[in-house]
Amino acid sequence: MKTTLLKASVVAATLVLAAGCASNGDLEKVREEAAAAQQTADEAKSAAAAAQATADEAKQLATDANTKIDRAFRKSMYK
Q1: First to last CA, the chain
Q2: Pairwise CA distance, residues 1 & 57, whole Å
Q3: Average pLDDT in the 59-73 region?
Q4: Which of 68, 47, 42 has its CA nearest to residue 55?
Q5: 4: exposed, middle or buried (Cβ count in 10 Å: 0-12, 13-18, 19+)
Q6: Residue 42 burial (10 A CB sphere; 0-12, 13-18, 19+)
Q7: How far is 68 from 72, CA to CA, in rounded Å?
Q8: Number of domains forming the structure of the chain
């Protein structure tokens, strides 16, 4: 009886340790995937910021062009 209980305890302890090692390996894999995802998100954020800057510049150029056209139209109306 004691021998069976001892063997069962050893087997259980071995399984717990093996599961712990697998969990550590899985945890490291998840950390690597999270780091890769964060890098991708950072790159996407940078690209979005660049696109926003380009859009802001285009908006300003369009506003400037509209102002210039409006001035030219008003000038032609006074002639």
Answers
A1: 114
A2: 83
A3: 97
A4: 47
A5: exposed
A6: exposed
A7: 6
A8: 1
